[in-house]
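Sample 1 of the test manifest.
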Amino acid sequence: MQDSTYSDAIRLAFDYLLSNHPDVFVIGQGLWSPWYVGNTMTNLEILYGTDRLIDTPVSEAAVTAAAIGASIAGMRPIVVHPRMDFMLYAFDPIINQAAKWSQIFSSQSKAPLTIRAIINRRGEQGAQHSQSLYHMFASVPGLRVVFPTTPQDAFDFLISSVLSDDPVIYVDDRSLYEEASYLNTIPTVHNLVSLGPKLTTSGLDLTVVTIGRGRVVTREALLKCPEISADTIDLRVLSPCNYEIIYESVQKTGRLVVVDEAWGFSGIASEVVSSVACHSPQIHLKSPPVKYHLPHSAAPTSSTLEDAYYLNSSQLASIMKSLFSL
Amino acid sequence: MADSFESLSKAYGLLYIIRSCEQYIADGRENGLVHGPVHLGIGQEAVAVGVSASLRNSDFVFGNHRSHGHLLALDPDPFRLFSEVLARSSGFSRGSGGSMHLTSPQTGFHGSVPIVAATIPLAVGAALRNKLVNSSDIAVAYFGDGATEEGIFHESLNLASTLSLPVLFVLENNFYSSHLHISQRQPDLPMTRYADAHGIKYRSVNGNDYMNVKDVSSRLISHMRSSPHPVLLECQTYRWLGHVDWRSDVDVGVTRSKYELAQWKSRDCISHLKSFIQTCWPESMSSLVSLENQIKSDVNDAWHRALSSPTPDISTLLAHTYYSN
């Protein structure tokens, strides 16, 4: 059986949605151009028409808000932001409008749109083309934020996000596009209300919670320390998220490392660590929890500096070993 | 086609309801019964009533911070408006919105919010829906002259023009942002230049003349329904009260004077329509007076009912943060 890549899975999810749901359309910049969105949308505009795959003027704010307006009017749009950095132009529509819409009208109206926020880093792209800003959106009530890391989740989550009645930020990361595994193309439509973290490997001595590409870095790091038996948990849902599975794991292992390729201050890793601390005073950690994340600095440009800036599995392996004085 | 007495007296009734409701709200704010800020449109009523005469329930209308009139023109229910302004569960937004967040989806009013210009692109999106499903419904965005200074207004006009979307941009030009006269914010050029810049058809009307607004918007909307395209309709008007709450705010800005206010009050949309009806149907004045009396009584009754209506139940505090729970 042939494996599918993460990027194929995204394309297949679009294909599924567009062929099964006439109320779905896609809008954003670069939809007709392979260099904006990799091969995640190849030829969709030929298959489904440029009326439903709308490549737009350079207007992130109005385009995002127009998708919100269409969702209020009964459609299920997907807005594509080929780089999350440019999405900041759309802060008002996302945070003031979409996130508030059902609350201010007591659920007499809703804004069921999906915003595909793509992280595209490295390659000497520098400070304004490389950011992982999902923690900013995850802090806003009313938004749901998901971040799949496997082809199956990339496929199922895109479909589940679009079929959700809430505004959803669907984060994907181009550094994951070549991740490959078996893909069941009959979707599992998750209810995002109950969707949560997933145990990806089971162990006894250490809990590693991963966000996004953190899962890949952790997988590689653990190969470098076979003596460590770890529970690894892919967070998958950034907000709102039930951490019960994490609490149970840390209760068992007594050690916690959170791996997030984003800034650390006030970020998702901090949320996980503080939640564990607040939730379970009876958990006695055998070592202080560790947050492994980017330095508190914008992305550098030089590839030499990039290597030092981004997460790497050797560094993570050393951190994990140090917890056991290995 | 000439207007009938019935259609004009209906419009007159709507103008009168909006004015009466807003006067109650102003008084309620002054004497402390209304707790949140209210942006009143007294003086501007003819815009919403004129445009709404050609709208239907399946259209998508979006308002702004000053939208009591936009909503009542489509859904003239003083009790639900008062309830909402008082944040009671019997309100249009079931007490979650207050004066600045109003909705009545069943009548086509899909929401007002106070972030300036924020609903303009929402209307563009609703118009995109109309185009995608081949509907002859249109979308309407009401906004003021201040909103034309926001970037998203220009993005929205360009997007609507590029995609040929059936959205009516209703620019209520009352010459003031919260406190600054337009001459202190923009060069002295026609507001319709923004439509010109984006290849959008435009008209400018006297926003204090119900029939002028209604006639022009009716023709524009009828064309938009048969062949989808955006239109900018500038309605020049004036708010009698200040930006927020019950005061007149004379001389708070630099140029808003008693003289200017008096001049605009002499061009009152309600007196204007009343004297027109009086001229054409002198025999009907008694029915107009009894209409006024009926409205006064209904509005007074609605105000007192709203005041004694319950606030939202504590259990609803977190019920609507997400639509799916």
